[in-house]
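Chain A, query sequence.
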Amino acid sequence: MQEIFWSWIGAFAGIAAVSYLNVELFGESDLMLIIGSFGASAVLIYGVVNSPLAQPRNVLGGHLLSAIVGVSCYLLFPSLLWFSASLAVATAIAVMHLTKTLHPPGGATALIAVIGGPKIHSLGYLYVIFPTAAGVLIMLAIALLVNNIPRSRSYPLYWR
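Chain A, predicted structure.
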């Protein structure tokens, strides 16, 4: 029950912080701090804290590299969404493997860059910074705090 409690607290605090700041800072603008793939990251960094896929290098690197790949694929093939979506996810996985930053939600971050619609597309490479980098850094900061409160948890296992 303790593990469930701390997973819930972390996920609530992480998503709440990103969502609240999104509304307060960017409510009326095209900039944003939250994307759907952060929900999957929350499962990993608050619910499975010992997983290699949940470590900071994987979370940050996986999202950022995948965002770059996703935006690039969309810009290269904007009229072939089925192709750019497929290319973005497959290439993001390959890049994460090559860089040892595998983080499954990164695949969704790449996909969102392609299928996210006009608001996402208008960001271009700014998508890598807002929402991706900013949102991930906020969620990781919450993970560092919450996951180290109970004695039964220690996060991260490693930084490399």
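The helical segments are 2-26, 37-47, 56-76, 81-99, 105-115, 118-123, 126-146. The first helix runs from residue 2 to 26.
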